Amino acid sequence: MKKLAVLLAALLCASPVFAGESGVLKLSLWGTKAIAVPHNTQVITGIDFGIGSAARSVKGVQLDLVFSKTNELKGVQSALLGKAHHVTGVQFNAINLSDGYVTGAQFGFFNSAEELHGVQLGFVNKVNTIKGLQVGLVNIAGNGYLPVMVIVNGRF
């Protein structure tokens, strides 16, 4: 147990060397009210954890209870409401919103993206430009084989 504590302390002390200007661990109360190790709460390379979180960039995991918001996500996002402009990875929220592109997957009750390269799995899926697959009760794709489909829609 002591070895694990020493290793964790060493990693946290050395994290500014590895992370440069980004935070490795962020604990969020609500929005930008947060603390981060080393100190950057807007650019996270590691874990962003809290009740509700807003960051400029997350490379890693953004895990929140109520909402997660970021401009650029490379990794995994999970909360009740998740919003990201650009996603490379997975959004796993009850409601997934992306007003940019998603390269990867969106899993939730409602999924929305401007451009999708990957998969949407939910009750209602909406995308303007798709290169991939939608699976759900209602699937809306602007450039899909049909604009609205039940169960499956897509374009390859």
What can you tell me about this protein's structure?
It is built from one helix and eight strands. The protein is mainly β. It has an eight-stranded mixed β-sheet. The protein folds into two domains: 16-78, no CATH class; 94-151, no CATH class.
Uncertain residue segments: 3-19
Helix content percent band: 10-25%
> Main β-sheet: number of strands, strand sense, barrel status?
8 strands, mixed
Give the quaternary arrangement of the chains. Answer: single chain
Total count of helical runs of at least 4 residues? 1
Order of strands across the biggest sheet? Answer: 2-1-3-4-5-6-7-8
Summarize it:
This protein is mainly beta.
Topology:
Elements: H1 2-19, E1 23-30, E2 33-37, E3 43-78, E4 81-92, E5 95-107, E6 110-121, E7 124-141, E8 148-155
Parallel strand pairs: 1-3, 3-4, 4-5, 5-6, 6-7
Antiparallel strand pairs: 1-2, 7-8
Please supply descriptive tags for the structure shown above.
156 residues; mainly beta; 2 domains; 1 helix; disordered N terminus
